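Same chain as my last thread, 310 residues:
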Amino acid sequence: MLKQIKGLHHVTSMAANARTNNRFFTDTLGLRRVKQTVNFDAPDVYHLYYGDEVGTPGSVMTYFPFPHIAKGRPGTGEVGTTVFSVPEGAISYWGNRLAAKGSLEIKVDEAFGEKRLNFFGPDGDGFALVEVKDDARAPWTGNGVDTDHAIRGFHSASMRLRDEGATAELLKFMGYEEVDRADGVVRLGIPSGNGADFIDIETMPNISRAQLGAGSVHHLAFAVENREKQLEVREALMDTGYQVTPIIDRDYFWAIYFRTPGGVLFEIATNEPGFDRDEDTAHLGESLKLPSQHAHLRSYLEQHLEKLEG
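reply #2:
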């Protein structure tokens, strides 16, 4: 069993409109835009990152906003709900805030003994806020949400699979342990993680496979401290039979990718070097940053990419 993985690093999803996406995460959810760059493989498309003050691993939601992309079709083989941690007593505040900002189908329930607020993003993305006692992670409060209510980072991600078995075994190999089962969902947690510690698996054997599009999670990324730990994980996964990519430089972290038995794309990302490698912390996300291979496209991209607010 691996010991290097410390919880979620980031979650990357698809969107249809960059301005709408930016407004939702900064204005509605109160997160900080910590980086605006472009998709490595499609440089005419933004890659936007939102999180806490510095983009701490375990807090970062990222998006590829493809203009005119079709809406995703929910189903199995995907992440159904991305879940954020908020302080105890914050749910009523968030219910009122989300309703005032136009969010639809807001619903309060309880799962695994935790009070949570379920809602949808602008592309039908499934989200929830869970009240967590004594989450010591520092929130970002620069967008108007006070400390008593602000998002601390991720709590968990929930996957919809036709069968839990092989993916649950993979997660256990990655260092997760089963912590509970309830209402057809198994919860796995990483001991001594970074706060973004849980993966829930919902088994839905009679549901068709999901189709990727706007509102879909593209991949889940798990955190390791550095490239040395990442290489250890890569070798162990390959020895177990997984097809793992070479290490890829993503400017703000190094990444490897592999497809899980249930169909979800996993990434292992390093905590280093971080989002302040090319911007001062006080000005993260304010200017367009380009991968070196796309630097020659700056003039075109600055005219072509939709201007963001804030």
